[in-house]
Specification:
By secondary structure, the chain is α/β, with parallel strands linked by helices. Helix 2 packs parallel to helix 3. The termini are close together. A hairpin with a 4-residue loop joins strand 8 and strand 9. The radius of gyration is 18 Å and the shape is globular. The chain has a single domain, classed as Aldolase class I (TIM Barrel), CATH 3.20.20.70. A 10-stranded mixed beta sheet has the order 7-6-5-4-3-2-1-8-9-10. Bound molecules: iron/sulfur cluster. Iron/sulfur cluster binds next to loops.
């Protein structure tokens, strides 16, 4: 594992960073903990993102600071027409590259544009039951038009044909915690399957999260029922609410680090104004917690 050279504190030794570069999304997941309406409002960022040039500078600075892996997230990052330029820049700077996406815009031609600079795709798939997807809002056309199981499997075939490594992220909610999702996951056969307990975050998902939250015991029951896919060589990575807290280095669409230590986002000063080292000191992230949630793996 490569560590940063200017390690000033624990958080700077964490080798991977999630860059939520973009607020817009074409789905309406009611549990979404990255809605960033506060950032749009408070930072006078009406489009929900910085200009491309500034985002490229942030990528440069992250690479310079020694981050080894960058994961572009949103909103839905593939709606950003210049996301491929950010991915290529990160790859040129020696970073392992990844995106988290709902999959709706992943096509052969989009992958062509990347010129093999994307290492990982994490597809967000919570269930393939269309009625549950509609109730969750994990659907297109304002949360009304869910993607089908066949569409998801088609996207997965496209990703694998290109040699991009596949991860699936599943948020476990009150709609799905009793499900056996192993049939779909065995067909999809990702390298890693991350299971996330639906996380309440003040200011991000207050309006609906109470309807979708589950208790730790319910989350653990889901993990227990579904982790049988490990027999097929799939690595299962469960993250309870507790494990998700203070264990990620994250950047918001205004180019600031943020943490979730207090059950809400706390934002740093802007990276482009104060630099990585100073801005990172404003947030609470812990290397041990990062390692405990399995943040370090063979990427
Ligand atoms: S697809 Fe992702 S970013 Fe968009 S609403 Fe759903 S969870 Fe949020």
């Amino acid at each position: 594992m490569k560590m940063t050279t200017n390690s000033l504190d624990q958080s700077q030794k964490i080798p991977s960073v999630n860059y939520h570069l973009w607020e817009p999304c074409n789905m309406r997941c009611k549990f979404c903990f990255a809605t960033f309406q506060d950032v749009k409002r408070d930072m006078e960022l009406p489009k929900g993102h910085l200009p491309e040039k500034e985002c490229l500078s942030i990528v440069d600075r992250l690479a310079q600071a020694g981050f080894e892996k960058i994961n572009f997230a949103g909103g839905e990052p593939t709606l950003c027409s210049w996301l491929p330029n950010l991915i290529k820049r990160a790859k040129e700077r020696g970073m392992v590259t990844s995106i988290v996406t709902n999959g709706s815009k992943i096509t052969n031609s989009w992958l062509d544009e990347l010129n093999e600079s994307l290492d990982w795709i994490a597809l967000s798939i919570d269930t393939v039951d269309p009625e549950k997807l509609k109730r969750l809002g994990r659907a297109l056309s304002g949360g009304k038009n869910p993607m089908t199981e066949e569409e998801y499997l088609g996207i997965i075939r496209t990703i694998k044909r290109r040699g991009v490594r596949l991860k699936i992220n599943t948020v476990v909610t009150s709609e799905t915690w009793q499900e056996d999702f192993t049939g779909f996951i065995k067909s999809a056969k990702p390298e890693r399957w991350k299971l996330l307990q639906a996380l309440p975050v003040k200011g991000q998902n207050d309006a609906h999260i109470a309807n979708f939250e589950i208790a730790l015991a319910q989350f653990e029951a889901y993990v227990q029922r579904n982790r049988i896919v490990e027999n097929d060589g799939i690595i299962v990575v469960p993250e309870s609410n507790e494990m998700m807290t203070e264990s990620y280095v994250m950047i918001d669409p205004a180019g600031r680090f943020f943490d979730n230590a207090q059950g809400a986002h706390t934002y740093s000063s802007p990276i482009l104004k104060d630099g990585i080292g100073k801005a990172l000191k404003d947030v609470k992230v812990d290397l041990e917690r990062f390692l405990k949630r399995g943040g370090q793996y063979d990427w």
